[in-house]
Structures are given as structure tokens and as C-alpha cells.
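As agreed, record passed on underneath.
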Amino acid sequence: MLTIAEEIFLLACHDPGGNYIGKEKTYRAQIAMGAIFELVFQEGLLVDVQDYVRNMDLNEIFNQMKNKPDFPIRVYDERPTGDRALDIVLRSIGKRRDQNAKQWARHLGADDSFIKAVEENLIMKKALKRVRKRRLGIFTYTSLEGHRMYMEAEMRMRIASVASKSKSPDDRSIAILSILHNTDLARMIFQDGHKEIYYVIRDFLNSRGGFENVMWLVQTNFDITKFHTFKLSDIR
């Protein structure tokens, strides 16, 4: 199974026809955000809502909810996952509680060792292979081409069907859509780009009663707060 970071890497790496376009270099922060989401799903990271609001009164909490919340994240389970890229994220965050998900995504996206680890994972899982090519018969370059293309095709089909509302949304697809919704990559992958995705994520969030760690991250990536009914009891 591919991680969310690996799936975003593939989406950025190839166009829908499977041709190498090299946009994984452009979307490094989004790939890193995918790793953060993955660790929240695996309960290695937490969105630190409780600690953040502990000393606020109810009016302050409500105002914070009404604005776009960017809560700090922290390590919940520091045990290695066995995934080199995810373990780089855990080690980087460590015992710090002073940065939110977007800040960490920018920091990790700039870390060449993290991006390289995601790439190596995909090669090890046989989703990608490195191919040396020549341009104009003189210049050589490395292309990351699909290996077992069915893996990428199935992933694209799953996410596209959620974006088009032909399939019920799942947490992992919603995570990817929230990360990519307002990027050129989304407009290249999905018909109607971020417009349709906006309503898919809005409806998904509104269908949830209360707040979960993953939903806080979706909200951080997607300005959707005005559609929420706030339940203060859920965070008190």
C-alpha cells in the first residue's frame, strides 16, 4: 500500500497518461504534508488542539474555531514506523510543539533526504523506476517512469471518482484532495479543478459530527470553517 506522500509524489511525477513531467520538484511541500497526514492516520502524530485551547475561555475558543485554525502538531508515538520517509518526519518534529502542519510541510519539503526517501520507497515498491535518457543525443537526464502502472492507475481512478462524486469519499482521498485542491496539479488532474473539489470536501466535513485529528488537518489545508457547526464539548 502506498502512503499519502507517495501517492502525491506519483501524481506530481506523471501526467494522466503516465508521461514523466517532473513536477515532484515543484510540489515538495505537498508531498511532505502527505507524510504528515499519513502519520496522523497511523497515530504517530497528533494535532495538538487540547493543549492549544487549554487556557482559553469559551469565547476565545469559538473565535479561534471561526477563523482558519492552524494548531500545532506533536509526536504521539515516537516508535519508528519502518518507513524511512515517515521516520524522518518523526525525528524532525521530535519533542517540539511550536509549529503547525503547514510550517512543518515547508520545512520537510526543503529536506532533500526526505524527498529522496519517498522516491526510494516508490522504487522499492515497484511503482517507479529510474531511466537514463538522452536529449538531443547529447544531454543525459534521469526520468522517473511508472513500473507497475496499475498501481498509479488505480490510485488516480480512486481519487478522481471521489472528486467527481461518483464514489463515496474516504478519509485518505479527502486528505489528498485537501492538499492539492488549489494547485495547478489539481487543475491538471481533475476536470473542473478546485471548484468541484471544494464542494466534495465541504460536504465531507459537514457529514462528520465533531472534530477529529484528520479533520483538523483537512481544515488547515482548506478554508472551509464557515460551513461547520462548532461543538465546543468536543475539545473541552
User: Anything to note?
Assistant: The longest helix spans residues 149-163.
